[in-house]
């Protein structure tokens, strides 16, 4: 009887003026969701069904999205939970997520987000602004182990929020400072979790909340709004996720996404195993390292996959010299070394002595681009290609050193104007073969300048202790991860930041250029217009390239390899090849 | 005998105290702590890291941390993992069975391979078979586990006969019970073979040496003179006595059943306790390391005890009174 009634209704609807999911105006809709998200970036219309298998190096640490801080856990929670906004993986622009639109007030301090209508959790309960407010509350609760609170705290004041009605919520940045332009990016740090399931736990305290929804959770209890739900987690082996049947996005034809039935993350102990599994056909994706590109290209036919010439990633690796007076003595620097490292002419000379071509060839098999800017060349939104460059030129380096008063004696040894022999030690984290290779290349070139340079890798915790605790070090080769918005790296670039590596935790900027960088970062935080931010970032990059507190090496390229049976593969930023929700399996049965 | 066992068990307590205290101190002596990696994150502020330190209890002096941990242990509360936010018992428990399976399989392979080969080598001393086996044994002992593991992985990759690491297949949950056993067995081949042959090399030499020594004894000569056939001489008289020292070794191996063979687990991706503990040590996940040390020490000492008891049971010359 019910089925009969449904068929009558469908026929009536068709007659009235829709056909299938298209509404009266020809817009795509879903039952109950008048404004679903449309994945218009996907080139193909896919088929339902199939399994997509990837591998990752470590186990997830938690399934609680508020607590997640590592990429392994993020790979799982990213498929299950969502936030108000999303990021287009091809352009990097902010696009609507759970929120379909937003407005900003005249004074730029109040952002009003409107949720889509008809959103539900995987257990069927409606998703409202109460859940968004609850998630924000959880982030700022004392005892909850999260890094999102820092992103949403401006000059020591946390962001405030106000629920207007079921679908609208306002975020208000503190009155004392200027309007926050980066806010759209930062609000993406709030993963929305269901209030009706977690309210009780949060009331018990932050420590209890941190332990909730950990890796020992029963999969059925993990309720999110995203395209997938957790089916099982076998420790040390794999995470299995299944399609969520009530998701709010559709493809260009109005069919509800995702296409895939199952998404499996295999846990492997190291990159070698990941590669072997991919070549043996056990997984469908492998993020190859630059050295492996040529070899993989040769095996494309046999292995039925394609390896793409991807763009550069956003991370950076550099040499940093210690300019911190607190690092003198106690096994750190001599006063003479401090004076050289603080001399910008010394730093510029060294930058000319870094053979970036050899680094690219030896460490990355040629698949890396020379870098002089703190922003990666792969960051299409904000990269400034007109910064001062320092091509590899030992004569120029020697010339700059001579101009600064460093003389090379008859014994070939370089001495500073006071007669001290120029010698120092470069450290890096032991076990990172890429950095060890770079250190050796650098050392050989610096020795050609007449300096006495020792290269001494040491353990990572000891290195971090020196960088952030004792400050007793001379030169270090290290790297940082990077996001698309450089303005979020305040810890590194503000003179008061504790990751301001060459001289952290300053009360007042020690130099004019550091003061200018501070001003740029404050302005950037206040600037809602992306074009104006780009100009500010361009100036920031030029200052860094001129003052060289960090000597960047290269931006390595990415080379993702994808099995040919996977559809909707299109290259985007940082080597991403598509979104999980639009992938589909070209053969219906695996 | 009962008194002996009781005394040994009581001795366990100061031993464990000493082991845990020394381990605690050593872990704290090395620079850095669990939050080292977090400090290099450009987004996380130092205030957040400080509050994390407080939450983990890492800001208190060492002896207070140790005493707190000790008090919790007496209530059988092993604490929480910093990295995973789950109880240490759950974390270790989720992998312990896997390690047990691997170690038992390796133990079986070791003993079923080593004993017969050792006997063969001893009874045909200096023959070509003996020298060949000895050479194989030396090769086995000197090849590092990661190397043989990698070789076998390569073999698996080229021939596609064996899976590349891991313990179960993708669709494991849908298999019937015998399918599940076969699947685990299929994955078990590489790690168990590597571990098993490594152990059997040494054991074979032991067996050979012991048996050779026994075969020179007078009573063997008497038995042969009495007219006994060679087979009962060897198996009924000689081997039984030669096995004695090996019983002790067997006891030690029982003690090692719950400790992970970290290297082979990492190389083949076997989801066992060894890999977990190794990661915990490098990350300085304090309570996981301490918990696993405690479990490892207890099983080791108990294994020793079992070895001694077995020896007393088998060898009438040994009595603990």
Give the SSE map.
The complex is a heterodimer of chains A (590) and B (321).
Chain A: H1 2-16, E1 37-38, E2 51-56, H2 71-80, E3 85-87, E4 94-96, E5 99-104, E6 110-115, H3 129-139, H4 148-151, E7 153-154, E8 157-158, E9 160-163, E10 168-172, H5 183-186, H6 195-204, H7 206-211, E11 228-234, E12 238-243, E13 249-250, E14 262-267, H8 271-279, E15 285-288, H9 293-298, H10 300-303, E16 305-307, E17 316-321, H11 335-341, H12 344-352, H13 356-364, E18 368-370, H14 394-403, E19 407-408, E20 414-415, E21 423-429, H15 433-448, E22 452-458, H16 460-470, E23 475-480, H17 490-493, H18 512-526, H19 530-547, E24 550-552, E25 554-556, E26 559-563, E27 566-567, E28 584-585
Parallel strand pairs in A: 1-13, 2-14, 21-22, 21-23
Antiparallel strand pairs in A: 3-4, 5-6, 6-10, 7-8, 9-10, 11-12, 12-14, 15-26, 16-26, 17-23, 17-24, 18-25, 19-20, 27-28
Helix pairs in contact in A: 3-6, 12-14, 13-15, 18-19
Chain B: H1 2-29, H2 36-39, H3 46-56, H4 62-74, H5 88-123, H6 128-142, H7 145-159, H8 177-215, H9 218-226, H10 230-255, H11 262-268, H12 273-283, H13 286-314
Helix pairs in contact in B: 1-13, 5-6, 5-8, 5-13, 6-8, 7-8, 7-11, 8-10, 10-13, 11-12
Explained architecture:
The complex is a heterodimer of chains A (590) and B (321). Chain A has 19 helices and 28 strands. Chain A has 590 residues and is of the alpha+beta class. Chain A starts with a helix and ends in a 5-residue tail after the last strand. About 3% of the residues of chain A have low confidence. Chain B is an all-alpha fold. Chain B has one domain: MetI-like (MetI-like fold), CATH 1.10.3720.10. The radius of gyration of chain B is 24 Å and the shape is globular. The mean pLDDT of chain B is 84.
What would the keywords be for this entry?
heterodimer, A: 590 residues, alpha+beta, 5-stranded mixed sheet, 4-stranded mixed sheet, 28 strands, globular, B: mainly alpha, MetI-like fold, 13 helices
């Amino acid at each position: 009887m019910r089925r009969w009634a449904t068929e009558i209704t469908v026929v009536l609807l068709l007659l009235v003026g829709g056909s299938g999911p298209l509404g009266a105006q020809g817009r795509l809709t879903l039952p109950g969701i008048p404004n679903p998200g449309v994945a218009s970036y996907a080139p193909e219309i896919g088929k339902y069904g199939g399994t997509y298998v990837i591998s990752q190096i470590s186990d997830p640490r938690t399934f609680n999205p508020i607590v997640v801080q590592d990429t392994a856990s993020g790979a799982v929670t990213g498929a299950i939970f969502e936030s108000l906004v999303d990021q287009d993986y091809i352009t990097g622009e902010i696009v609507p997520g759970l929120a379909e639109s937003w407005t900003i007030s005249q004074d730029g301090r109040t952002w009003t987000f409107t949720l889509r209508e008809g959103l539900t959790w995987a257990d069927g309960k409606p998703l409202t602004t109460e859940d968004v407010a609850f998630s924000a509350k959880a982030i700022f609760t004392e005892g909850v182990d999260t890094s999102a609170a820092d992103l949403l705290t401006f000059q020591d004041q946390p962001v405030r929020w106000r629920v207007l009605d079921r679908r609208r919520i306002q975020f208000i940045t503190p009155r004392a400072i200027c309007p926050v332009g980066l806010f759209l990016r930062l609000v993406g740090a709030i993963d929305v979790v269901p209030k009706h399931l977690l309210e009780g736990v949060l009331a018990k305290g932050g420590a209890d909340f941190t332990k909730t929804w950990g890796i020992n959770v029963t999969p059925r209890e993990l309720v999110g709004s995203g395209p997938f739900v957790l089916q099982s987690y076998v420790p040390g082996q794999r995470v299995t996720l299944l399609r969520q049947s009530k998701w709010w996005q559709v493809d260009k034809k109005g069919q509800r996404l995702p296409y895939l039935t199952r998404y499996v993350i295999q846990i492997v102990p190291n990159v070698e195993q990941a590669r072997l599994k991919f070549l043996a056909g056990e997984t469908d994706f492998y993020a190859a390292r630059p050295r492996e590109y040529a070899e993989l290209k040769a095996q494309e036919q046999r292995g039925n996959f394609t390896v793409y010439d991807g763009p550069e990633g956003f991370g950076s690796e550099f040499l940093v010299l210690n300019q911190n007076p607190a690092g003198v003595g106690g096994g750190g620097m001599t006063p003479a070394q401090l004076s050289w490292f603080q001399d910008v002419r010394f730093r510029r000379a060294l930058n000319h002595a870094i053979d970036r071509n050899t680094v690219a060839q030896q460490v990355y098999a040629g698949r890396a681009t020379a870098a002089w800017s703190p922003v990666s060349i792969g960051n299409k939104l904000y990269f400034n290609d007109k910064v001062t460059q320092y091509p590899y030129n030992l004569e120029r380096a020697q010339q700059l050193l001579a101009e600064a008063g460093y003389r090379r004696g008859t014994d070939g040894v370089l001495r500073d104007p006071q007669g001290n022999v120029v010698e120092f030690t470069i450290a890096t984290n032991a076990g990172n073969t890429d950095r060890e290779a770079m250190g050796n290349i650098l050392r050989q070139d610096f020795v050609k300048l007449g300096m006495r340079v020792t290269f001494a890798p040491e353990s990572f915790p000891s290195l971090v202790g020196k960088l952030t605790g004792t400050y007793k070090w001379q030169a270090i080769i290290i790297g940082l991860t990077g996001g698309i918005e450089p303005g979020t790296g305040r810890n590194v670039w503000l003179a008061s930041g504790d990751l301001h590596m060459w001289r952290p935790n300053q009360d007042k900027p020690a130099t004019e250029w550091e003061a200018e960088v501070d001003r740029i970062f404050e302005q950037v935080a206040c600037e809602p217009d992306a074009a104006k931010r780009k100009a500010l970032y361009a100036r920031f990059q030029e200052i860094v390239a001129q003052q060289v507190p960090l000597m960047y090496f290269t931006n390595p390229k990415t080379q993702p390899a994808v099995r040919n049976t996977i559809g909707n593969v299109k290259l985007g930023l940082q080597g991403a090849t598509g979104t999980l929700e639009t992938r589909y399996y070209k053969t219906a049965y695996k | 005998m009962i008194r002996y066992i009781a005394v040994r068990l009581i001795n366990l307590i100061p031993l464990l105290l000493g082991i845990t205290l020394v381990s605690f101190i050593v872990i704290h002596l090395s620079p850095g702590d669990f939050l080292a990696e977090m400090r290099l994150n450009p987004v996380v502020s130092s205030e957040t890291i400080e509050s994390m330190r407080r939450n983990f209890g890492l800001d208190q002096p060492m002896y207070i941390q140790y005493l707190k941990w000790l008090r919790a242990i007496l209530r059988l509360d092993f604490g929480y993992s910093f990295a995973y936010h789950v109880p240490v018992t759950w974390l270790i428990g989720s992998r312990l069975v896997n390690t047990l399976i691997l170690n038992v399989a390796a133990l079986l392979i070791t003993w079923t391979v080593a004993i017969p080969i050792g006997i063969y080598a001893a009874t045909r001393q200096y023959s070509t078979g003996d020298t060949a086996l000895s050479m194989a044994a030396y090769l086995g002992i000197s090849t590092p586990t990661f190397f043989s593991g990698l070789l076998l992985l390569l073999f698996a990759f080229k021939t596609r006969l064996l899976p590349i690491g891991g313990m179960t297949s993708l669709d494991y949950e849908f298999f019937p019970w015998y399918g599940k056993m076969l699947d685990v067995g299929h994955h078990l081949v590489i790690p168990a073979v590597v571990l098993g042959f490594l152990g059997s090399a040494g054991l074979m030499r032991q067996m050979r040496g012991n048996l050779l020594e026994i075969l020179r004894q007078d009573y063997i000569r008497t038995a042969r003179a009495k007219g006994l056939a060679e087979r009962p001489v060897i198996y009924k008289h000689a081997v039984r006595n030669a096995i004695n020292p090996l019983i002790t070794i067997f006891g030690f191996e029982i003690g090692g059943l719950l400790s992970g063979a970290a290297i082979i687990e990492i190389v083949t991706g076997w989801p066992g306790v060894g890999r977990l503990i190794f990661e915990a040590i490098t990350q300085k996940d304090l309570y996981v390391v301490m918990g696993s040390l405690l479990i490892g020490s207890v099983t080791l000492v108990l294994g020793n005890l079992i070895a001694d008891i077995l020896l007393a049971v088998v060898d009438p010359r040994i009595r603990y009174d």
